[in-house]
């Protein structure tokens, strides 16, 4: 959307910095207290690029300014929610899933970041949760924060909010095929918590 509206990446021929983590950042950068909500906002540079494009499209600047100034309210997501797994599959294909295990941020960090398995590789790619991603039992992400969801939204098991990880876990076996003794290994439990809780 930013590129379609004339914006360059932050830091590309402008005074903004990609490390500030706004939408038009050129990559993933560390979170700080001051930039925690930036992945859901455009930088001043991006906003200026977009305004310049809109001005160039509108010959009557009074109409353009009135339109922009009078646009009040907020974006409504309605009752739609989605899972982190759905986002992985949408971005990387049906073979992708949310990575779990040692070295992966815990579920309570999901609204800030989670990782998707890159099909055909052994690596996981960082994702930023979309608005209305389910982040706990009856909770969803709004601008990087896990808040109460609407009635009936995001029912989850708090002990295993993502369910079992798909695919091979140990020795060509999925979670449902593993012997229960594997559940005592922390990394296996993190990937197969639903099966291990049974």
Automatic annotation (TrEMBL):
Domain of life of the source: Eukaryota
Alphabetical keyword list: Disulfide bond, Glycoprotein, Hydrolase, Metal-binding, Metalloprotease, Protease, Zinc
Cited SUPFAM superfamilies: Metalloproteases ('zincins'), catalytic domain
GO molecular function, one term: metal ion binding
GO biological process: proteolysis
Residues of the Peptidase M12B domain: 1-66
Entries under InterPro entries matching the protein: ADAMTS_CR_2 (IPR041645), MetalloPept_cat_dom_sf (IPR024079), Peptidase_M12B (IPR001590)
Name of the protein described by the UniProt record: Peptidase M12B domain-containing protein
Natural source organism: Arion vulgaris
């Amino acid at each position: 959307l930013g590129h379609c509206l004339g914006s360059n990446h932050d830091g590309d021929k402008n005074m903004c910095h990609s490390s500030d983590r706004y939408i038009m950042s050129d990559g993933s950068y560390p979170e700080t207290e001051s930039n925690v909500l930036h992945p859901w906002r455009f930088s001043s540079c991006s906003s200026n690029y977009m305004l310049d494009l809109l001005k160039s499209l509108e010959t009557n600047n009074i109409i353009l300014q009135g339109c922009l100034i009078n646009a009040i309210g907020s974006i409504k997501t309605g009752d739609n929610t989605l899972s982190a797994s759905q986002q992985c599959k949408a971005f990387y294909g049906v073979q992708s899933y949310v990575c779990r295990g040692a070295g992966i941020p815990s579920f309570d960090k999901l609204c800030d970041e989670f990782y998707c398995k890159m099909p055909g590789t052994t690596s996981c790619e960082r994702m930023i949760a979309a608005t209305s991603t389910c982040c706990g039992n009856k909770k969803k992400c709004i601008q990087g924060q896990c808040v109460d969801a609407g009635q009936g939204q995001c029912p989850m098991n708090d002990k295993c909010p993502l369910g079992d990880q798909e695919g091979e876990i140990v020795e060509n076996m999925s979670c449902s095929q593993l012997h229960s003794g594997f559940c005592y290994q922390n990394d296996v439990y993190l990937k197969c918590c639903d099966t291990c809780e049974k």
